[in-house]
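In this section we walk through a basic example: taking a raw amino acid sequence and producing a predicted 3D structure, encoded as discrete structure tokens. The instruction is simple. Fold the sequence below.
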Amino acid sequence: MEISYFLFTGSLGALISILAHSVAYSGLELLGKPQLSSALTLVQVSVAETLLHLMGGIMMGALYWLSWGLAAVVGVQWWCRGLGFGVLCALGIVLPSLASLCLVRREPLLQGLTVSARWLTTCLLVGLACSWQWANG
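The resulting token sequence is shown next.
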């Protein structure tokens, strides 16, 4: 398979992740509770963060292609392989970023958890999308 399929699939998985989080935050904001809206101003998705997730999705797609679709993992469904890849990527991205935000920079815990949740969702969706592409391509 060509690498371009996985680069495209990784970027789409990352953008869908950011879109899902934006829709979820908008839905929470529509609830209209004052204490909730003040907390949501901390967790709004910026354009720079969207571009970072896009680039991260592209790199994870390239990493999936370089790993040959986790060819050593045999006898499992495509979605199990995709979730496994997503969890492995999340261990390398989410835990260090959460530690950096909460321990070193002293950011609020809510902001650290939302950034980590966005990256976890991106890793899982990119892993699932690339695994599906490998199985059906």
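Looking at the output, two observations stand out. The mean pLDDT is 83. The helical segments are 3-30, 34-40, 47-66, 78-104, 109-136. In the next section we compare this with other chains.
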